[in-house]
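fwd from M.: "can u put these together and see what the complex looks like"

so here's what she sent:
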Amino acid sequence: MKKQTFTGSNSLLRSLEHEGVEMIFGIPGGAILPAYDPLLDSPIRHILARHEQGAGHMAEGYAMATGRVGVAMTTSGPGATNLITPLQNAKMDSTPLVAITGQVGTAAIGSDAFQEAYTTGLAMHCTKHSYLVTDAGELPNVIHEAFHLASTGRPGPVLVDIPKDVLNQPTHWSEPSLAGLPGYKPTREGHPKQIKAAIDLIESAERPVLYVGGGVINAGASTELAEFAVAVNAPVVTTLMARGAFPDDHPLALGMSGMHGTYPATTAIQKADVLVSLGARFDDRVTGKVDAFAPHAKVIHVDVDPAEIGKVRQAEVPIVGDARLILRALLDRVLSLRDAADAPRRQEWFDQLDSWRKSHPLSYDQDPDGPIKTQHFIERLHALTNGEAVVTAGVGQHQMWASQFWRFSRPRSWINSGGLGTMGFAVPAAIGAKAARPDDLVYALDGDGCFQMTFQELITAATEGIPVKVAVFNNGGYGMVKQWQSLFYQGRISATSLGTTIPDYPNLAEAMGCVGLRVTHADQIDVTIEKSLSVNDRPVVVEVVTDPDEMCFPMIPAGGSNDDIAMGPEDL
Amino acid sequence: MQHTLSVTVEDKPGVLARVSAMFSNRGFNIHSLAVGPTNVEGRSRITLVVDAPELEQLKKQLHKLVNVIKVQELEPSETLEAEVMLVRVSCDPHSRGEVADTAALFATRMIDLSPKSMTFEISGTPEHLASFLEHVRPYGIIELVKSGRVALKKQSDVSTSLIGGGTR
Ligand SMILES: Cc1ncc(C[n+]2csc(CCOP(=O)(O)OP(=O)(O)O)c2C)c(N)n1
Ligand SMILES: [Mg+2]
């Protein structure tokens, strides 16, 4: 047989292999066709999604479960536009992603050719960076740069758009370099002067709080965080993105803060005299009304992205760099001044926090004969799995309950859409996570509304042999939006009811090659969960019929101060 | 408040779009913009005059763009600035002599002459251009076009503050 010419497509695959890519989530089409041919001969596994948004979220789930770069590949035009939501989602949550999109031939660009979209223009606002490759010779460097940009500094999505003729162009592959990035030099080490200043401030604090964000998970800094929290004897609050960065059963843990955070976590920040922000970004869901946020606190702000510092809240001690290296440096500095055991006691502060824990716990009421409360199901699932699962979530009440009631004990066990709040994230993200970590139990905790946005990816899971488990909390609608209508729109329920009977979830699941289960009574929860755990050759969908009127609390009304935290509707 | 920013970028397609998109994304208005090559191959300089209350966040956001190499804020007192303007002044054979005299004082070049107008090319500081406009305005300005401002940091220690700024 005649020796095949080495083309741009071969170079692309060779580059992806060079970056250590083990799987790609994607859907082929005209413009990307050439790349799908050498894929057949590559050790890289391709997982065929049913919608490009699903492919993107799978790549995110893969990345969030592992810390490695997730890869999605689609065709031009609609393939690329369908990827926009995952790209923006990954941008908001700082998830390392590389998206490869086909593009119409170079000569046709700008001519409104079939399936043409100005992909790099669209991507400009929802990626960390993007490339249009105009010569196959650029591919080794471009792909190498894309992976470097996606995974270093503040991680994020990078898009590489490749015209079809470039994929077909004869070329050769050479060892890539980063020489093409003269302006990109993320800071890693914290400035020693700032490290000292930070420790001085923390040591003299009476009411310090460590406010931990997703950056700590991205930096792989959980071990350092735990050591540091103990060494300085300060309580730890985790944001939605940081659930799992610090174990919830640790005596210093206060749980999540913010709009639906715990009373002790949110209130501790309000009363703190020193707030140490680690890889967090003072998101409006955390701060509430900014002017009233942590009004007594001097702020130490650690972030790898200099633009985060001072963006929302002025910091007394800004430290730019990698959270793990900085925590290590902070720890070294404390221990150079005193023994670990000589940390300030702060008895009054801890007594205060304890009293808040006792007076304002998270709570719900499960009537044994009444409708199932999502919170109760989540607690039972945690108990029956010993918390040894990766859980993903959609967006809404079920997401907040999952973040409140799952007792997290390790990083990368919580995968959700925080910054963008993308409904439909849970199922494809779970598939990506399970593909990445086949030996771990991956359970999607999804709402009925969210499930209806992306459930077709369960067909992907069933056909690709990725046995995820999905609990669909069927409260008959868009619970979170309905909650707002109940509380702030005089109970006028507009366009938030989905009904509870259509679709028939177990049947829908079975039709997609999954096992379908349904639980309607609290006393059947445990057996149903056990049944779901016993199936390992196929995905399982458990419809959990839940109380349609249950509301999620604590809650801080939009635009309100965090001092106005409501424990129930009576407080609003 | 107007600020002048000098942004050194890689000379690659789409860089200008990224820079200007960053401003529009964050709701800031670009007052003037000039872009061109520098003495270093593969590097361009974008000089921007922007209306913004403070620049810190904008500078950091510019830095986040992968193709941006350097961001410099140019303080008016330590900056050499220039703009180019083409201006068409209305005149008839009677007033032509006066207009030409005024234009000569400002070191302009006359680049087009018609029975009803004279067109000048003038370059210099924004003040220099503004001053020229003041002097020819009474004759009637038919049309004008201005380039974006270009700027460099001063290297000499000479201060113009004592003599109240200047033209060149
Ligand atoms: C793509 C998208 N569209 C709309 C919304 C607005 N939204 C936020 S939560 C929500 C309801 C979610 O319903 P469900 O998945 O059933 O969760 P529940 O609140 O009932 O637990 C909606 C519509 C969103 N976040 N994302
Ligand atoms: Mg619902």
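replying to her w this: Chain B has two domains: 2-74, 80-162.
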